[in-house]
Amino acid sequence: MKLTLEPRPNQEPAPVLDWSTTPLARKYNRSYAKVIDNLFSSEECDALIALAESDTKWAPAAVHYGLEAHQQYVDTDYRNSERILRFDHDAAAAIFQRILPHVQELIEIEPGSSWATIVSAPGRIKGTWKLVGLNERLSYLRYGPGHYFREHCDGQLELPDGRKSRVTIQIYLGNDGVEGGATRFHDLRAKRAYDVEPKKGRVLIFQQRGLWHSGEDVVKGLKYTLRSDLMFRQSLE
What is the C-alpha separation between 192 and 19, in angstroms, rounded? Predict the structure, then answer.
């Protein structure tokens, strides 16, 4: 099965999340995140789920500690959901083209640029980081009642071909009416939080470095998401 997404010309770029409007202003005021509603139609969301289910069955989601297939384990106290992993260059390219107009500020990141902290701590970025696409590793997740993903920061991948992940893409695919299941950003010390609800067609984009978040317990319905990474290449020239 092949994914087809029709082009959407003249998209108005979504603004970066203004953390000052949230309870986490002090914690994440220099962190990058965006919430984009209706970036994918209901029919496109259904097609993305169908793509995952076309040749693979759902299985318990694992925790990874490396890139090899065996470097994983299931820990339902920490991560309790179902997953399909699909490696699909064509689908990743199509999704990336839909998202690209909204991440123009990330096309090239250099020392001193507005979002250099996506790459490293202030003053520590080396070279130029160029956005090169979406990771073809598409992680589909299905959360039923009682499923969750406890507090964590997303891992920063470094692939053998030199590509590096620094930004997470999460597409909410499930039907409206799910109760619970928000992606919750945390200030664990101050016990403050900000929720992004799993609205169908919504895309959540956020930096991987230092942003603590969780998938809150689903109370009712099925929450479907598709997660991948924006990939960069670092040039020291």
Answer: 12
For residues 165 and 139, is the Cβ–Cβ distance under 8 A?
Answer: no
- Each residue of 169-224: pLDDT tens digit? 999 999 888 999 999 999 988 899 999 999 999 999 999 999 999 999 999 999 99
- CB neighbours (10 Å) of residue 175? 14
Q: Which amino acid is at 154?
A: D
Q: Which two structure tokens, joined as six digits, stand for 17?
A: 């999340």
Using the Cα atoms of residue 110, residue 96, residue 34 and residue 81 in order, give the sign of their dihedral: negative
For residues 215 and 183, what is the distance between their CA atoms, to the nearest angstrom?
Answer: 5
Q: What angle do CA 194, 125, 211 make, to 5 degrees?
A: 15
Q: Read off the amino acid at residue 92.
A: A
